[in-house]
Amino acid sequence: MLLPTTKDGEITARLFAENGVEGVVCPDLDTLCREARAGAGALLVAEERLLGDSERAVETMLREQPTWSDLPLLILTLSSQVHAAELERWQQSFNVTLIERPLKITPFLSLVRSRLKDRKRQYTVRDLLESLDARGREFRQLADAMPQMVFAADARGRMEFINQRAFDLLGLTPQRLKDASWAQAIHPEDIGAAETRWRRSIETGASFQAELRVRDARTGKHRWHLVRAEAIRGPNGAVLHWYGTGTDIHRQKLYERRLATDADRAAAEGAAKSEFLANMSHEIRTPMTAILGYAELLAEKESDAEKRRFLSVIQQNGSFLLEIINDILDLSKIEAGKLETVPARFELGPFVHDIYALMRVRADESGVGFSVEYSGAAPDWVHSDPKRLRQVLVNLVGNAIKFTHEGSVRLAVSGSPGELVFEVIDTGIGMSDDQIESLFAPFHQADSSVSRRFGGTGLGLAISQRLARMLGGDITVASRLGEGSTFKLTLALAEDQAAPPPGAPREGALAAADDEPPRLGCRVLVVDDRHDIRFLAGRILENAGADVDYAENGLHATELVERMLNAGSPPDIVLMDMQMPAMDGYEATARLRSMGFRRPIIALTADAMQGDMDRCLKSGCNAYLSKPIATAEMLRMVAEHLD
User: Fold this and answer.
1) For 75-112, how does the pLDDT look when each residue is reduced to its tens digit (9 = 90+)?
2) Of 109, 173, 186, 200, which shows the fewest CB atoms inside 10 Å?
C-alpha cells in the first residue's frame, strides 16, 4: 500500500488485519515496486502518489510482467477528477480498478478480496504453465536423447516439433520448421505411396506406418527409415495431434536385400541342379534301358547255358549300377528338398510279407537264413509312405545279408502304443564304436577294406536315415565287432492304427506280379528319339501281341497321330519319351490333347525328380514309367490302361 499519509496507511493496515487481509505499508514507489515483484497479491495506491511518479517506476514494473501475470492495481482517486484522462489511460493499459474517496468500508473490503482471488488464480495458471514447461523440457530432452527421429504434428499433419536428430538429419532449423515439407526429404520413388498413406491416416485417424527412404542433409544420401505415427484424440474422439518416430532401418533393408539376392541365387542354383539331375538321369537311364532290355531279350531266346549265365551277369551288374544311380539321385533329391513322401494307409502283414519274399531270394543266393518275427502289439494297419518305408527296410535287410557270411538275418516287427519298431538283426561281421560313429555319413563305409571286400557306395544308410526322419522316425544301431549288428527303425504312430472299415483298399501292399505277362491286342505308338529304345520297346510289345508304330520325336508323333485321327485309326495307347530333340514329350502330349486325342498316353521318364513326374501328369499323360523299362511292369501298365 502507498496511501496519502503515513497515518492513512496505518489505519488501512489495521482495517485489513481485523478482516483477515495481510497488508504492507510502503513509504515510497520503489518499495511498492519491490514488494510487487516479491509476490504482492494487489497494489493499493493513492492517485496523487502514483501520478506524481516522474520516473514511471510502477508503469515500467507492470509492463515487465510475465505473460501469465496481470497484477491488480487499485487506485484511490481524488474527487476533483483533474487527472481523469490519465487515469483512463492506466485503465486501458493495465488491470486497474478506480476507488473513489472517501472509502465505503464494506464494498472496499469486498473489492480487495475479489482482486486477491484473481491474483491467486493467476499464480495457479503460472504453476500449471511452469509444470507444462518442465514436462515439455523433459520431453524434449528425452526426444533428443532417442536414436530415432521424433516428431509431433497438428491434426492436419503440419509439423509442430521435431527432435535434434530430425533437425540434423533433415537439415532444418526451428525457424523453418512450420514451413518444412516431408516431400523435400523423402526419396522421389517413395513419396507417392507415403503421401497417400499419410492422407488416409489424417482422414481416418488410423495409425500410420511406412518404410521409406529419407535424405540425410549431412551426406546427401538416402537412408531407409521405418516411420510410425499415432493419433492423440480429445474427449470427443477428434484427432488433436500426431506423435511419431522415424527409425533408421537402412542396414536391415540392405541385409534383407542381400538375403533376397542369396535366396534368388540359391533358387537358381537349385533349379540348375534339378535340371542337371534330370539330364544326368536321362543320359544314364536311357542306355541302361537298352543294356538291360536287350540282355533280357537275348536271355529269352538263348538256350546255351553258358551264354545265359553271361547274360545273367550283365543283368545283375546292370541292376547293381542302377541301384548306385538311384542312391545318388535319391540323396541329391533329399539335399535339394525335392524328395517328397506320399503317406497312405496300408496293411502291415502283406507289406512285410512282400519284403520277406523279395529278400528271401537274395538271402538264399548268399547262403544265409532269413526270417520274420512278430512280437508285441504290432498294429494291423499303418499310415506312412509304403514306398519309402520299403526302401529303408530293403536297404537295412540287404546290408545285413551282404555283411553276414554265416548264420542268419532276422526282421523283428513289434509295436507299442504310438510306436512301430522294425529291428534287423544279423550275425555278421559287426562294427566298432568308431565305425558306428560315422556310419550314417554319405559316401562313407566302416573302412576302406569294407568297400574293397563288399562293394557299394556308402550311400544306402545315409539315405535310409534321412528317409526315416522324413517319415517321423529314426534309425539306431547296436553292434560288436565280430558278433553282428542290430539296426532299429522306430516310427512314431500319430494316430490310432486300427484296421479301417471293411472294404478299405490295401494301399501300399506290393502286389505280386502274375507269372504270365498279359497278352495285348492293341495298337501302340512308341515315341523315342533313340532307335535302340524304340526297337526294344517295340519288340517287347510285339511279343505280347501288340501292333506297334514308331515316331522318333514329339513333332513326328503329333504329325503321325493327326494323320491317324483323320484316317479314323488312331493308336490305342502312346508310350511317350519326355526328353527328345525337335519337340519334347511334354509339348507333344499337350498338342495331342489339344487336337482331340483322348486315349491313354504313358510317359517314359528318367524319374530324376518328383517334379518331373508331376509335370508329366500336368501335361496330359495318364501315367509314367521310369527308365530302365521293366518288361513286366510296362506290359502290366499298358494292359491296365486299355481296360
Assistant:
1) 999 888 888 999 999 999 999 999 998 889 999 999 99
2) 173
